[in-house]
Amino acid sequence: xxxHAHSALPEHWPLASLLVxxxxxxMRNFLLKTLAPRVGQVLGASSAEEAEGLLHKHRFDLVxxxxxxxxxxxxxxxxxxxxQGNPCEVVLITxxxxxxxxxxxxxxxxxxFLLKPFRVTQVLxxxxxxxxRARLKRxxxxxxxxxxxxxxxxxxxxxxxxxxxxxxxxxxxxAMVDSTVLLTxxxxxxxxxxxxxxxxxxxxxxxPFVPVNCATMSPTLIETELFGQATGPERRDxxxxxAQGGTLFLDEIGxxxxxxxATLLRVLETRRIRPVGGxxxxxxxxxxxxxxxxxxxxxxxxxxxxDDLYYRLQVVEITLPPxxxxxxxxxxxxxxxxxxxxxxxxxxxIEITADEMQYLQQYHWPGNVRELRNLIERSLIVGxxxxxxxxxxxxxxxxxxxHEALPADRPxxxxxxxxxxxxxxxxxxxxxxxRAAQLLGISRRTLERRVAEWAEG
Length: 457
Fold this sequence. Notes:
Elements: E1 13-21, H1 25-35, E2 39-45, H2 48-57, E3 62-66, H3 74-83, E4 89-94, H4 99-108, E5 112-115, H5 120-149, H6 162-175, E6 181-184, H7 191-200, E7 209-213, H8 222-227, H9 239-242, E8 247-251, H10 258-270, E9 272-273, E10 282-283, E11 287-292, H11 296-301, H12 307-313, E12 316-319, H13 330-345, H14 354-362, H15 368-382, H16 388-393, H17 396-405, H18 414-428, H19 433-440, H20 444-456
Parallel strand pairs: 1-2, 1-3, 3-4, 4-5, 6-11, 6-12, 7-8, 8-11
Antiparallel strand pairs: 9-10
């Protein structure tokens, strides 16, 4: 392969950890001296048994493993590593190789194979490609996790109001520094989207963006999820490792158990983590952005959140505005959601009338931008604006007030809009009330009551 094919790969991996396993002192020392200046840590072992002890104590990104060893051979050790769930990349080396040996090595899980004697450039290429594969596997895992657990935010921050322009300016300013950031605001205001914008504008933009919702993770598993598992068949890396070089977004940080809050504080102060069951710490380089929909100061006063962690997170605090405080952005948000969601759903865009847009701007939006996004998504599915779901969430007094506020000569007041929309949805599903209720976001009993009222009228 031409040398220019490797030019894009970095020459130094300061956070990487390597293990060299070879019973020949000369070869082992050659590899250690060649690779030590390029990584954060490199250790050596002269046998599979010695390597096993190091593998239990340390986390390695790459193992360079000789096949011919005294006692247990390299392929047997590799098979045991894979059986124990060790995911690190392994480059096998040997002076005596045939096709059967190479096939067995690849089947055992080796990522590369070098035949002695080899040149320095061959070692460096295998080393760099192994670490690059490890990085790509982490990024692919992050992507699969994101797609399986949530709907990724679409686009950037939308809006031209003073509130949104102020938020954009604050994010741009904070992106220039590496400080930990705390995002606060009501549920649905777009804290994850703001964290993603912060990531995209920062020096960590080339790394992964890893979102974690602390409220949805099991208290018994969250430590392993964040920091990884060092021993046993469930051995694996944690999200701090997968976020290396990028941004780790800890949403609903107030839901972390108190013992884990102490662990997180130590990580923030030292930038080093220790996997569950492990004996050694290793460095991590990433940005941490935390978020909470409850005032953390109140949680501290109530004894549910550590004050020292609160102050460590609150280096920079940015509060996201609720939608009701910048309703002038609703038309832009509606257009944005229609333009981005219609192609994803494979449906035609819908038209929003001036009367419907006016109602959207009158509504109080307790669920903020997320509620608006969900409304547009449901409406795209049924082919018309789904105002009935919003109407059902209003109190009786609010409904009366909104009805009285509309001009008397308007033929499409809220009740009429609701009736027309519900009847059109019922027609689209051939009168299936259960399906219609699901599409409308209301219960079947509510739907039946409405239809009965119209029949009596």
